[in-house]
Write a structure and sequence with these properties.
By secondary structure, the protein is mainly α. It has helices spanning 8-16, 21-28, 86-90, 99-122, 130-140, 147-173, 189-199, and strands spanning 40-43, 50-52. It has 2 domains: 1-70, no CATH class; 86-215, no CATH class. The protein has 7 helices and 2 strands. The chain has a two-stranded antiparallel ribbon with strand order 1-2. A hairpin with a 6-residue loop joins strand 1 and strand 2.
């Protein structure tokens, strides 16, 4: 077969038609000129030109034959998953929480708040006098509390903060930031986001807030 010199541009056009370097040589009879005494063992990764062994640059397009060595890009580093201790289950605003754990823990906190409200009402009089009604009205306005009432309100506020923490971690599982918490305060719109919290599956695999809780 007659060997015809071919420029890198023409050879590149032949490869563009879908031929591999070997197929282009077999079907078209076109071969790059091989320097005398050189072993042709590699192809240019840029233009497909056949190169002699040990060549550092392509004699057709001038590109380097050495692949650029890029440092390994490590993935995002997350804190180890901790979800065994009680404080890891309920305290904290970082990480992710899947649907099942969110539902279970929200139910526990809601149950505690119901019990707290029950005991709070248990110690109030059944038929309060006008003075007692006035006292309760002032108390509800936030001006006067007994020690028991103050403790109950503090506990209720603490449980509400824990509820927000669970909701935030559940939003993290959906790849949403803390700003989504404000949407829970808007009437009617909050129903949609509550549906997401309880029903929508979280992001598969790692996301920007941490590893997948289903993998732990």
């Amino acid at each position: 077969m007659h060997k015809v010199p071919v420029s890198g541009m023409i050879y590149k056009m032949i490869l563009f038609l879908g031929y591999s370097p070997k197929d282009a040589e077999r079907h078209t009879g076109v071969r790059p000129i091989r320097p005398k005494g050189a072993m042709m063992t590699q192809f240019c990764k840029h233009c497909g030109h056949l190169l002699p062994d040990g060549a550092k640059f392509c004699d057709a397009c001038g590109a380097s034959t050495e692949e650029a060595k890029t440092p390994f890009a490590a993935g995002p580093q997350y804190e180890p998953w901790h979800d065994a201790a009680l404080q890891d289950k309920f305290l904290g605003f970082r990480g992710r929480l899947n649907r099942k754990r969110y539902f279970q823990r929200t139910l526990i906190l809601a149950g505690l708040q119901v019990l707290l409200a029950f005991f709070f009402r248990l110690f109030q009089p059944d038929n309060p006098s006008s003075e007692e009604l006035l006292h309760m009205a002032v108390m509800d306005a936030g001006f006067s509390f007994t020690m028991g009432e103050l403790a109950a309100r503090i506990i209720d506020a603490f449980l509400s903060v824990l509820q927000l923490g669970l909701a935030l971690r559940r939003f993290h599982d959906l790849d949403r930031s803390w700003g989504s918490l404000f949407l829970l305060m808007i009437p009617f719109i909050n129903l949609y986001f509550l549906f997401l919290l309880f029903c929508k599956k979280g992001t598969a695999g790692d996301n920007r807030f941490g590893p997948d809780p289903l993998m732990n």
